[in-house]
Design a protein that fits this description.
507 residues, mainly alpha, two-stranded antiparallel ribbon
């Protein structure tokens, strides 16, 4: 970028626009850069009598992370951790029978911990470094390079704004929580009858071959500062993940997180098989109180999940924050209205489920749609996911224990596709960046809803197929080696005792 300091009549400065140094560990809008290559403002030139000595550009200064942005991202990371433990754990735990309460808590807590460790070892590197359009490379294995021994400082990662950075280590931690919660979402689909060891083995395989490639395909790109001119723009885009290249919009994980996990859960429900007594015995939640507490923690934590995905404490973070509030509230009301019309009564379980449905649907749209569009997405998701856990579930015939596909699958699909509709500036959306060189948004008269919806749909379809294929293979491998399911006797006794030798409640 060139900058003319108008107040100095005799001053002149030259700055060769520096391409953002592409560390192989660049993340989606989190590109690592060296101090020597980062773009910086032009320094004032020497006086006229010494002008000949000022013909060379002043050394570029490295961008410095803003403490507010850094703090916001660390707080957001903490909020996402709260979503998993205790939020998701309590939400799921309250929905199962009391004899399986601790087994669900255990699977969520240990599963999350497992994925975080794998993320540090190889997950971050393969998801968020330059490789090809399906998978990244090895430059951040074991987080090497996060600390620059030569410079004596932490590597920086860019945000979605040119010249604005956060410490890359903060971005890596934030994304670790996304990987962890995504894996744990799957657990609800086969709860109450799967071996603990089988859960962990499956998560390792699925995380490696489904989550990592999907995160790379959707979110990896070279960062805004790589787009220094029109001449290099096409080359930079060609280095991004496949779905990013298509131009799909996924603010915080409609495809990567929710649809990805939901498909894996549905496949698991089929391959693990139905619970003993399913369809003959009542499988009622043992504590809707805990479920409500868990749903509330999910809602609060989701502000970090969605608004944190802006990577800065700016207007887009505020938009995502507001949409997370409003769309979720709309979905709660829609679910309750739907229940009242269908059953004559609105339930606490329905209200909690509606909240999660709204949170899921607004995730890909959070910073990509206006507030009116967010409300519409929330209302539609409430009704759609109610159908997903009732009508669609019967059609599929799977024992999806805690309705992972009905809520996360249906809600994720609805949100991902409607993002293409309500991103339109003609419908109050912020539009999308059409040119990363100038960071110019697509003009209202140039925005095509039909085109963007098709791009969104392609992303959804690829996610369904990719996760489905990986899941089938992973479950089969686990079944052949460890075995997926506990014995009927162990299942009837309850997994708390049979798998962990303890119980949640003492009489």
């Amino acid at each position: 970028m060139k900058k003319l300091l108008a107040g100095l009549a005799l001053a002149a400065g030259l700055l060769a626009p520096a391409a953002w140094a592409q560390d192989a560990a660049s993340a989606p809008a989190a590109v690592a850069a060296s101090a020597a290559d980062a773009p910086a403002p032009v320094a004032a030139a020497a006086p006229a009598e010494a002008a000949s000595a000022a013909t060379e550009a002043a050394p570029a200064a490295a961008p410095v992370p803003n403490k507010g942005d850094t703090t916001w991202m660390m707080v957001s990371t903490l909020l996402v951790i709260m979503m998993v433990v205790p939020g998701l754990a309590l939400f799921y735990g309250g929905l199962v029978r009391s004899k399986n309460m601790l087994s669900v808590l255990m699977q969520v807590m240990v599963g999350f911990s497992l994925i975080v460790v794998l993320w540090v070892i190889y997950g971050y590197s393969f998801a968020f470094t330059e490789g090809n359009k399906f998978i990244g490379g090895t430059d951040r294995l074991f987080m090497k390079g996060i600390w620059d021994n030569v410079a004596g400082t932490f590597a920086n990662g860019a945000t979605f704004s040119k010249g604005v950075v956060i410490p890359e280590i903060v971005f890596a931690a934030f994304q670790a929580t996304f990987a962890g919660i995504t894996a744990c979402l799957i657990i609800g689909a086969f709860a109450e009858r799967i071996k603990f060891s089988a859960v962990l083995a499956f998560l390792v395989l699925w995380f490696t071959f489904s989550y990592i490639p999907m995160a790379h395909m959707v979110w990896f790109w070279m960062g805004p500062d790589a787009y220094t001119s029109a001449a290099v723009a096409e080359e930079m885009t060609s280095k991004a993940g496949l779905i990013w290249q298509w131009g799909a919009l996924d603010f915080a994980g409609g495809t990567v997180v929710h649809i990805n996990a939901a498909v894996a859960g549905l496949v698991g429900a089929y391959m693990v098989g139905k619970r003993v007594g399913y369809g003959k015995e009542a499988f009622t939640p043992h504590s809707l109180t805990l479920t409500m507490v868990g749903a509330s923690l999910l809602w609060v934590g989701w502000f970090g999940f969605n608004a944190g995905s802006a990577l800065e404490a700016n207007g887009f973070a505020a938009l995502a924050f507001f949409n997370t509030l409003a769309a979720t509230a709309a979905a709660v009301l829609a679910w309750c209205i739907g229940e009242a019309l269908l059953k004559g009564k609105a339930s606490m379980l329905g209200a909690a489920s509606g909240a999660v449905a709204g949170l899921v649907a607004i995730t890909p749209a959070a910073g990509n749609v206006g507030i009116g569009g967010g409300l519409v997405i929330g209302f539609i998701a409430g009704f759609a996911c109610l159908w997903g856990v009732s009508g669609l579930k019967k059609l599929l015939g799977a024992d999806d224990s805690l309705d992972v596909f009905g809520v996360h699958g249906v809600g994720g699909i609805v949100g991902a596709i409607l993002t293409g509709v309500f991103n339109s500036p003609n419908l109050g959306g912020p539009s999308a960046v059409g040119d990363w060189v100038t960071v110019a948004m697509v003009a209202p008269d140039a925005y095509s809803i039909a085109s963007q919806v098709w791009i969104q749909t392609k992303g959804v379809l690829l996610t369904i197929v990719w996760s489905g294929v990986v899941s089938v293979v992973a479950y089969k491998l686990v079944d052949l080696t460890i075995g997926l399911r506990v014995t009927e006797e162990e299942e009837r006794e309850g997994l708390d005792i049979s798998s962990h030798g303890e119980t949640a409640y003492h009489k």
